[in-house]
Amino acid sequence: MPIQAPTTPEFEAPRGEAAVVDARTFDHERVANETKHWVRLTAACNSKCVFCLDAEAQDGRFMPFEDIQTEIRRGREEKNATRLVVSGGEGSIHPRFHDAIRYGKEVGYRWVQTVTNGQKLADRQFFLTAMDAGLDEITYSLHGHTPELHDRLTRTKNGFQNLMKSMMRAVRDGRPIVNVDVCINKQNVQHLEAIVALCARVGVKEFDLLHVIPQGVAWDNRADLFYDPEEHREALRRVFRLARSSQFHIWTNRFPLSHLEDMEELIQDPHKMLDEVGGRRTLFRRYLDTGTAIECRDTERCPHCFIEPFCSALDKHVADHNAARFEVWWVGGRTDLAAELPGGASLLGVSEIPNSYAGPLYLRADRYTPDVSLPVGSRIVATQPEHLAQLAGVTTEVEVHLDKAMCAALLALPAIPATWILHAPTRATAELSAQLDPDWRAFFAALPPGTRAQNLPACLCPGALLERPLRILDAALFHDDGRRAIEPFVDRHIRETYRAKSSRCRACPADNACEGAHIQSIRAHGFRQLVPLDGDATATLARLACISDVSPRLKDGAPPLPPPPLVPVPGNEPVPFIDLHAGRRS
Ligand code: SF4
Ligand code: SF4
Fold first, then answer.
1. Distance CA 210, CA 89 (A)
2. Residue 490 CA to chain centroid, in angstroms?
3. Does the CA dihedral 345-496-459-431 come out positive or negative?
4. Highest mean pLDDT out of 27-31, 503-507, 534-538, 559-563
5. Which ligand sits closest to the CA of 311?
6. For residue 312, which atom of ligand 1 is closest to its CA?
7. Ligand closest to the CA atom of residue 501
8. Which residues does 370 contact at the CB level (< 8 Å), separation at least 6?
9. Using alpha carbons only, what angle is made at residue 72 by residues 66 and 76, rounded to the nearest 5 degrees?
10. CB atoms within 10 A of CB 81
11. In this predicted structure, what is the pLDDT of residue 103?
12. Which domains does the chain have, with CATH numbers?
């Protein structure tokens, strides 16, 4: 019997107070971040989606079952993963699909999931065999509320009918968790509510809403796929608001951050950037090793891309290195790396005062005692309120790292010395940001105008004189052979340089010189904390004068940076490009 899609949504999204990430989000995240291991069974698919990210990698191969077994075991042994995702291409077209599920359970995965177009699973016996093999979760890729729309986007005859038949059977069966991925694009954005309503009617209440990104054939079909989320703001928000209903689980994936204002609980965990970059690591590896430009780096394309903050941070870091603009070479305890400071650095960043180094240091206050005289140009980093008393008389510059306790201690002082710079640290998680961040605006408003500050947008430190934080080149970003390491760089990006702005920032005189607030601060306190500056733009820009060399992001219209040559760490020789798919390390 043909399936009738509802023509109008049958429910109204609940209305609630604007919320930032909270305990429910953290619980969701803990489940979502259970270590997953993806195993690709095929590089082939029985659909041909117009937005496929993977089309270029699909050469029709079916992986040998022995290789699949090895890869499934590797996830348990090396990653200790407890969730297995069997995928492709389309995993279900592999003749050993059921054996792969069974094998996953045999080697100890708690949970086995597949992401599918539902065509094979529409067959009753095929579905039942998958259930008996131990399949726990089926994620259907549904992109339209009607056969016409879904089949057009997936270029699959009867794709919608088969998928819905399969989905209804899976829900009726009751054994698997059933959820839906939707790739939101220009063709279906206005029907998103109807897609969700259709699934809800069938009994599916969990959705991952993926924003189309400019990769694979999606970019070839860009005229038909890319859209302005602002134009569809209300339709999107009606669906996003369902996340506040206890009946629905809504996730977003790769959605442009500034369009999630007042919906910050839907900002995906920033650590997903590791997966995004990992999926393209060959491109990044080649860029870092040989200077070959990332082939998709393009002023038209990158503004649509979720990874853009990372690519811009990487370009900026490499450009700073090439131009020798770093100020600190951070080695921590590795004082053996202090023979020569690379990247233009003049300060050595250490966790202990070294015996055999006479130059200026960048040093944590817990390693400093007033009886030691530091070389001229050194900087001390204070992280605990008790550090302040011993630093009161020093002439060396002091970077005071702020949290609620530190702010209270500073407000209790009669005056803040002119050598002190108040630094707003970024936090590793939104939970920490919620716990540790003071009310920035109230804190700075209580201080005298002209107090030195860094690492905050101007709107959060009224009256302060903003300075650019020292550029720190961390030895941990390099392999021993001098090659830049990718994963530590992504970690550092997430921890320090991953920032976001409100779409309201366009009205702010600081917009061009401002990177916004750190992602975890946005998740903890919302975009609403960012308030465009008003009044005298000249006075505002004077406060920002010290940070005017902040590179504009590519999305703001700057051209891509030229590809950089490899700059090795002194004493280390660069090595040629290594093809990671040949099994070598990154
Ligand atoms: S932002 Fe990076 S990954 Fe995205 S299209 Fe541009 S270069 Fe490619
Ligand atoms: S551009 Fe945005 S984040 Fe930056 S100071 Fe202005 S309002 Fe704040």
1. 17
2. 9
3. negative
4. 503-507
5. 1
6. 1
7. 2
8. 390, 393, 394
9. 140
10. 22
11. 98
12. 35-255 (3.20.20.70)
CB-based contact 513:466 (threshold 8 Å): no
For residue 339 the two structure tokens come to 């023979």
**Burial classification of residue 157, based on how many CB atoms lie within 10 Å of its CB (0-12 exposed, 13-18 middle, 19 or more buried):** exposed
Closest among 206, 208, 225 to 52, alpha carbons compared: 225
If pLDDT is split at 50, 70 and 90, which confidence band does 96 have? very high
pLDDT of 483 strictly over 90: no
Asked whether 155 and 149 are in contact (CB, 8 A), the reply is no
Weakest mean pLDDT among 14-18, 136-140, 301-305, 470-474:
14-18
pLDDT at 294 over 50: yes
Residue with tokens 């609403």: 528
For residue 272, the CA-to-ligand 1 centroid distance in Å is 15
Instruction: Tell me which of 219-223, 391-395, 529-533, 562-566 is least confident.
Output: 562-566
- Give residues (CB < 6 A) around ligand 1: 214, 280, 294, 296-297, 301-302, 305, 307-308, 311
Nearest CA to ligand 1 atom 6: 302
DSSP structure class, residue 399: E
Q: pLDDT category, 220, cuts 50, 70, 90?
A: very high
Number of residues written out for the chain: 586
Q: Phi first, then psi: give them for residue 362, nearest 5 degrees.
A: -115, 110
Percent of the chain residues past pLDDT 90, beyond the cut = 59
Q: What is the pTM of this model?
A: 0.84
pLDDT confidence of residue 417 = 95
Mutate to test the pocket of ligand 1, among 305, 486, 489, 498 (most ligand atoms within 8 A of CB): 305
Q: Which residue has the tokens 């088969």?
A: 162
Kindly give the distance from the C-alpha atom of residue 274 to the centroid of ligand 2, in angstroms, as a whole number.
27
Around Cβ 370, how many Cβ atoms within 10 Å?
A: 10
Residue 572, pLDDT above cutoff 50: no
For helices 233-240 and 192-202, the axis angle rounded to 10 degrees is 20
* Ligand 2 centroid distance, CA of 454 (Å): 14
**CA nearest neighbour of 218 among 153, 279, 281, 307:** 153
pLDDT at 9 over 70: no
Tokens 């990698």 map to which residue? 57
CA 518 to chain CA mean position, Å:
11
Cα 494 to chain center, whole Å? Answer: 6
